[in-house]
Amino acid sequence: MAEIEIRNIGKFFGPVEVLKDVSMTIADGEFVVMLGESGCGKTTTLRSIAGLESVTSGQILIDGAEVQDKKASDRDIAFVFQSFSLYPHMSVYENIAFPLRAVRMNTSDREAAVKEVADILQIGPLLNRKPSALSGGDMQRVAIGRALVRRPKALLMDEPIGALDAKLREQMRAEIKRLHISRGSTSVYVTHDQIEAMSLADRIVIMNDGILQQIGAPEEVYLRPANLFVAQFVGSPVMNVTDVALSGDARVVIGGNEQGFQFPGQVVSHLNGAPLSLGIRPEAVLLSHDAAHGAIEVETTNVEPLGSHDIVDVRVGDTVLRSRTEAGFIKSEGQKVWVGLDPLQAHFFDRDSGQALRGTN
Amino acid sequence: MTHSEPRAGHSAARGLSDKSIRNLFIFPTIAFLIIFNIFPLLFSLYTSFTDFRASTNAPANWVGLENYSYLLTNEFIWRNFTITAKYVLISVSGQVIVGFGLALLLNRYMPFKGLITTLLLLPMMLSMAVVGLFWKLLYDPNFGIINHSLGLGKFEWLANPDMALWAVAITDIWMWSPFVMLLSLAGLSAVPKHLYEAAEIDRAGTFYTFFRITLPLVAPILMIAIIFRTMEAFKTFDLAYILSSQPTTELIAIRLYKMAFLEWQTGLSSAFAYIVLVMVVGITMIYVKYLNKVKER
């Protein structure tokens, strides 16, 4: 088990800068998920930690020792590939035993280690099969088994379940979490799936364009996004973001609707008059059938029934806000409703820099 | 084919029907095959059971299995087989080692890789006779560049009964290693890069990775190269014939040629050719069986 520290790493592929001054510390036994769109640099960061990619600048430390110039084989880190990367000509047993044979572990220890991992992952009956005879889920179990069998300092996973179908993904997600809890190994996991990230992570690292955007616990990233990118990347459906103006009496006015939403003074007191964007999640856009205090009368433009809840679009001025309501609350589009915003769940961002503007509370 | 039938009537007005064009293309090939392949094959099978001599007008007498039993019990013939086996072994293993080695060197980033690969393929594109004549000069004890550059003085290569077969094999290795290299290169580039990354993560060293990952995955295509080269080496004639006239380089193809066209023992040489054919088919079948086993892995 190990602590991993990344200090100001940068990476160029030819003229393209793919990592820009990325720094983070991953504590011993922590499960960190790196989340971002494809091409954001998350996989490159992971591969740099593993030693499969060299960094152009900066340091990588494992347990306090600099490793950025060491070969992957000298870093004692396991890696689970998205493509599984099982050795096609070897049986499941030989695949899992490969890292042990490579360092000449004796046969009896090796057999015991493989058996233990096979039991944990419930792949005992598959040991004599070839990878080509396995299902996707089993292939990934074998790949994880091969990574775990030598008790590495850290376990790195690059979209390990991205190639599986939705149901199996859910099942494997739970399995990976259970495995992490039982083995407690330091884990870094890359995904573009925010549900995977939210459900697995102790902390989430959100990246965009080679720049680290925010590190935090899942609820922190969700409730207190550091900037507009994080705000809109995390959460489904996407957070409503619209340009707003703040009037002197603490009303938040959306373009095209003069009435605006009355906010408590202390919620907006820290905003200093810079151009503002308002971010508000669909569950904080409150609809009611009756005129409520401070609510604006609007018309629904679209209703998406999703079973457990509905997503209802309403037009406020020039903007469409999406609201999450209980199932069947709004029957159809074109219906008159009153919309209000929950001031405590409102996020204000500097329109130019995209940075979140927060009060001291 | 079938869709051309309805149009045949229309095109007849314009000239040849599709069917006649088809036949026009196919019949010459079939005639050629029958005259030059199938007839000689059957005729030589017949003559192998006779005492026929193509140089005389005497009618062929049926001798049954006499030619075969004579050949299979003749120790001179077995000497030719032994020489050929030795030649095949030296030449093919040399080609595999040199060719695969070159492929390993080329299977990485290097400047001018395409040009280097093309240049390395040149020997393979030359005519056997030309290569034979070139190397005869290269091996020359008085002015040959091989002795000169190796500092061997007046060392005899081709006139030395012990060295002549090696000299022929070395020439063959020079000529055909590029073929093994080409196939190996295709095999090596088909090994997914991520397997090497996985092996590196698994802390496998260079040799371990080579023997446990590279070699098993390239084996099927390397096997195909070996099959081709073995069959070719087995029936080598021109290179050995041009380079050396030593009895120690008398491969079966040369013996067969002498028997058929210098000694005019047509019936006997036909039987000999059939024995060689059966052996080549037998060896190939062993290889193909092994190839399938390798492919299953």
UniProtKB/TrEMBL annotation, chain A:
A GO cellular component entry from the record: ATP-binding cassette (ABC) transporter complex, substrate-binding subunit-containing
SMART domains found in the cross-reference section: AAA (SM00382)
Gene Ontology molecular function: ABC-type transporter activity; ATP binding; ATP hydrolysis activity
Keyword Cell membrane: yes
Alphabetized UniProt keyword annotations: ATP-binding, Cell membrane, Membrane, Nucleotide-binding, Translocase, Transport
Gene3D superfamilies tied to this protein: 2.40.50.100, Nucleic acid-binding proteins (2.40.50.140), P-loop containing nucleotide triphosphate hydrolases (3.40.50.300)
ABC transporter domain mapped to chain residues: 4-234
Protein name as annotated: Carbohydrate ABC transporter ATP-binding protein (CUT1 family)
Any one GO BP annotation for this protein: carbohydrate transport
Entry keyword annotation includes Protein biosynthesis: no
InterPro entries: AAA+_ATPase (IPR003593), ABC_transporter-like_ATP-bd (IPR003439), ABC_transporter-like_CS (IPR017871), ABC_transpr_MalK-like (IPR015855), ABC_transpr_MalK/UgpC-like (IPR047641), Mo/tungstate-bd_C_term_dom (IPR008995), NA-bd_OB-fold (IPR012340), P-loop_NTPase (IPR027417)
Biological source species: Shimia abyssi
SUPFAM superfamilies attached to this UniProt entry: MOP-like, P-loop containing nucleoside triphosphate hydrolases
Family that this chain belongs to: Belongs to the ABC transporter superfamily.
TM ranges: none
From TrEMBL, chain B:
TM helices/strands, residue ranges: 24-46, 87-107, 114-135, 163-188, 209-228, 271-291
Lineage: superkingdom: Bacteria
GO biological process assignments: transmembrane transport
Keyword Transport tagged: yes
Topological type in the membrane: Multi-pass membrane protein
Pfam families assigned: BPD_transp_1
Cellular compartment(s): Cell membrane
UniProt family annotation: Belongs to the binding-protein-dependent transport system permease family.
Official protein name in the record: Carbohydrate ABC transporter membrane protein 1 (CUT1 family)
Source organism of the structure: Shimia abyssi
